[in-house]
Fold this sequence. Notes:
By secondary structure, the protein is mainly β.
Amino acid sequence: MAETTMLDLEGMLNDSLDAIPEAPDFNNPPAGEYRLLCKDAAIDKYETKKEPGIQKQRLKITYSIIETISTATKEQPVPDGSLFTETFMATETGLSYFKKRIKEIMNVSDTTGVSLSDMMDSSKGMEFKARITIKKSPNPNDPENPYENIQIRVIPQAS
């Protein structure tokens, strides 16, 4: 996903960063229709606040917004290039939803014999249209700020 070439920062102390592009923000887009890019699909390792020190895993897809086609509300679209993520639990059900999403992104009907690694690698760089809806659910820790779950519906390409 990110370039890993190490730079000589001490040698750059007197250089401007004009040639370095500014990193995109992570912004959840409002409900609407979009052209998206699958920027990355990877195994994400994380810890929860309830179980610190216990490392868990999930699958994470990072999307980049290429273009906002329309928004469902009068809400302003997020800037093109903004990033957001979708995660899938490391369970059989989570893998089932991940497999379905990859098939939709790649516009294929069958992934028989394709490894998880190949699915993740093959989806990177794929562009597609999608309809995004936002589902809000109560946040017991902060009732004023409900959880927002992004639901992505890939719009199939015409054959």
